[in-house]
Design goal:
CATH class of the largest domain: Alpha Beta
Strand content: 25-35%
Number of helices: 7
Radius of gyration: 27 Å
Distance between the termini: 63 Å
CATH architecture of the largest domain: 2-Layer Sandwich
Oligomer: single chain
Shape: elongated
Number of strands: 13
Strand order of the largest sheet: 2-1-4-3-5
């Protein structure tokens, strides 16, 4: 029976399925696989499982072989090539006065192609830049403009929580994040407090949003009239995680009560 194995090519990158053939692989093993751009160097993140447990609509490419010492040396050479290409490209961008922010360079495993990742507020005419790069580096060149969230994912960093950015640590695909999620969780709507290093709304707003929505269903809505041990009043605030609500009583005083202390909804 054919088995499929999950391979990742870079940290927090997408996991791709491959046919492992007769290879016995474990999580953490490094392998050489067949890709659309030739051979690729990746790490096993999902051990082999039967194909029927992880079906695929497309024919799976195969694991070519286990990575050898020579392959690790080739990867190190690629890192050096990427560093040189990055430095040279920055110089060219400055000389050509192009309005673009280069932040990463990636080489294919066989070093036949370099991809330059950059951000920019608009379109960039980089034809002259590509000519200079080809002349200096002697390989195929691809310029790829990406969004600011992708830059944060590829570059990494430390978030306001003091931990490594989620996008560079484990998030494979970006999910939509809205200001409504911050409202649902009772957070400050100050953009500087709910935005990540990329300047966009923090991805972590999406993590607990479903839980907040589910818990909030059983809470009386803001403005609802409820009855408590201290009297009848109107709900003015909800503390979903703390399972408490603020109530303004008929006499104008405000109290905080636990959700299970509400006697009756009217």
């Amino acid at each position: 029976m054919k088995k499929v194995v999950g391979i990742r090519f870079k940290p927090a990158g997408k996991v791709y399925d491959f046919d492992c053939g007769a290879f016995v692989l474990n999580r953490g093993d490094y392998v050489i696989v067949e890709t659309e751009q030739g051979l690729g160097f990746g790490a096993v993140v999902i051990p082999p499982i039967p194909c029927d447990e992880r079906p695929s609509d497309k024919p799976l490419k195969k694991v070519f072989r286990l990575a050898s010492k020579k392959d690790f040396c080739q990867r190190e050479k690629n890192f050096e090539t990427e560093k040189h290409a990055h430095t040279f490209c920055l110089k060219c961008i400055k000389d050509l006065e192009l309005k673009m922010n280069l932040f990463s360079v990636e080489s294919t495993f066989d070093a036949s192609k370099l991809t330059f990742f950059f951000t920019s507020e608009g379109r960039v005419d980089f034809r002259e830049l590509v000519k200079l790069l080809v002349k200096e580096l002697g390989v195929r060149i691809e310029m790829r403009q990406v969004g600011i969230r992708n830059q944060a994912k590829m570059c990494g960093g430390i978030g306001r929580c003091g931990r490594q950015l989620c996008c560079s640590l484990f998030i494979e695909n970006f999910e939509p994040v809205s200001i409504r999620m911050a409202k649902e969780q009772g957070l400050s709507l100050n953009p500087t407090k709910i935005s990540g290093l990329c300047g966009r709304l923090m991805c972590c707003l999406n993590f607990e949003n479903e839980t907040y929505e589910e818990l909030r269903k059983k809470f009386p809505k803001i403005g609802k009239i409820v009855k408590t041990k201290s009297g009848t009043g109107k709900v003015t605030h909800q503390n979903v995680i703390g399972q408490r609500i603020d109530v303004q009583l008929d006499d104008g005083s405000k109290i905080e009560v636990k959700f299970d202390e509400i006697i009756e909804d009217q």
